[in-house]
Amino acid sequence: MANPGAINIKIQKMKKADFYTKLSDELELEEKTISEKTPFHLTSLRTLMLIAFVDENFNKRIKVVDLKDVKTIADLMNLIGIQNFTD
What we know:
mainly alpha; two-stranded parallel ribbon; 3 helices; 2 strands; 40% helix
């Protein structure tokens, strides 16, 4: 029997192309076209923006320490969970 007081959160998957566009806009990346191979550098401000972006779009909480090894868009997607993306 389902718990009537439980909160059921459904995460929608995001198309990779939409993710690239949103991420580029959110972090104000200089590259107009990005892909999984695109490297990027996280400043203090970008780190905070990225943490908020991931929480807002994927309902996933990440910490600054989680981002220490993120060097490319693919690294970020793996951290978020590749299952949250569609082609």
